[in-house]
Each structure stands twice: as C-alpha cells, then as structure tokens.
Amino acid sequence: xxxxxLTLAVALTLAGCVSAPPPSQWRAPAPAKVVDAERLWSxxxxxxxxxxxxxxxxxxxxxxxxRLTSPTQVEVRDTCQVGTxxxxxxxVEGSGRILDPxxxxxLRVKYFWGFVxxxxxxxxxxxDYSWFIAASPTLDKAFIYAREVPSxxxxxxxxxxxxxxxxxxxxxxFPAVAD
Length: 179
Description:
- This protein is an alpha+beta fold.
- It has one domain: Beta Barrel (Lipocalin), CATH 2.40.128.
- The protein has 3 helices and 8 strands.
- Strands 1-2-3-4-5-6-7-8 form an 8-stranded antiparallel β-barrel.
- The longest helix has 16 residues, at 2-17.
- The radius of gyration is 16 Å and the shape is globular.
C-alpha cells in the first residue's frame, strides 16, 4: 500500500510539473519553414545549446534521437553524459505526435508514461537539414541542434538567429559536445 501511494504521489507531482501550455500562453513565432518529417524527425541530433533546467543539470554531450514510426508519430530518446562526454549516460524516452501534419514543425512529446508533456516547435532549420532551432511555444525552453558539431562562427550565427526569433539568448547554456 505504501509503495502504491508513493508511486501515485510521484506521478501526480510529475503531472503537475510540466504540461503543454494553452494557446493563450504562446509567445513563439510560427515556424519559419515546412519540415520534411522523414528528414528532421529521424536520426541523431547533437544538442549545441539549451535552456538550463534541472533535468539536464550536470549533463553534457546531449543528443536527441528520433524515429518516425508513422506520418504523425515519432519515438524520442533524449540522452546526455553525466559530467564529461565520456561519463555515464542519462536517458529519457518519449512518444511524440506531430501536431501540424503537412507542416510537421510542431511536436508534442509525452515522457514518463504521459505524466510529462512538452511541446517543441521547429522555429527554423537549415535548407539541408544540418541544424534546427526548437523552442516551446511559450519560449521558456529553447534548443539548438545540429547533425555535426558546428564551428564557433556557425554556432554564434545560430544563437543570433534564435535571438531574432524572440528568445533571450543570455539564458542559454552551451554544454560540452561530443564529436
């Protein structure tokens, strides 16, 4: 009985912590480009920059791994290494749903058996799909991803682009990236 009550308490706490925001709270601009779901929502993306959050404290060498399982369903596995790029792996898996079929730039991912839900919008991307910028619709979370580690000049250009999209880039952190 105690274990069931504890499990329920943890689940309710997680459910209350993070959920998809209502449209009245959206501050992010509309995605700039249509997304080819097969090109973007598949494979491994390196996390170049992110908003600090407790879930990623101590994490470096972050990556998101996507697998498109249907025209609107995406399996997500987010990973990082603890402490150093060679550290212990920390991972969380989720089930994503494309919210705007045809445009394919808005993804809702449910983690922890659906108790935590995050919306990610692809605000901009490279024409060759070498990078993309994602943020929550409220702009409280933002991420820059790339297929390969960018040069400092390329990274700085991506940060400037995120700032042009309305995000306070002074809030970003740049964890070590694994090659």
